[in-house]
Design brief:
about 160 residues; alpha+beta; Aminopeptidase
């Protein structure tokens, strides 16, 4: 799997990719307000803003014909803001490989995510545990705050 760091030239493709996966699997869990909030978050200018302020790093992986098949955005070195995998590549360990790639970049001990309803079980399989007992709803978005704590046996 070839993991690449996002450049300015990749942002439009990543934004479209994320929107397509979000619309298929997640948008129906949120209100119209929540979906609009998310769509603003993945707009080109918003992503550029986060990258330019050094708030975020975005990585992605492609298949043989250079089509994006997955992406991850890590904010403030320890918060997963986006983690999306194309439907054709689900259940192949790609999300876990992207997260492992992020962990290998630093010695950060804790990672957080606001997991969508769809992704809760996926994050649990990657070792995240819920921080709350029930879903949180904010600005029309429903999510479960989760945390991953690296233990002594966790490889970098």
């Amino acid at each position: 799997m070839n993991i690449k760091k996002t450049t300015i030239n990749d942002i439009n493709k990543i934004s479209i990719f994320v929107k397509n996966v979000y619309d298929e699997f997640i948008s129906h869990h949120h209100t119209k307000e929540g979906n609009n909030e998310f769509y603003r978050f993945i707009e080109y200018d918003e992503i550029i803003y986060r990258i330019n302020r050094a708030e975020s790093e975005i990585f992605f992986t492609t298949n043989d014909d250079d089509t994006i098949i997955a992406t991850i955005e890590i904010r403030y070195y320890s918060h997963i803001a986006l983690l999306y995998v194309d439907k054709k590549y689900h259940r192949q360990g790609i999300a876990k490989k992207l997260f492992s790639f992020i962990k290998a970049q630093s010695d950060i001990k804790k990672y957080t995510v606001n997991a969508s309803v769809y992704a809760i079980d996926i994050y649990k399989k990657m070792g995240f545990i819920p921080k709350e007992k029930c879903l949180v709803e904010r600005n029309g978005l429903k999510y479960l705050p989760m945390i991953y704590i690296r233990d002594l046996t966790d490889k970098k």
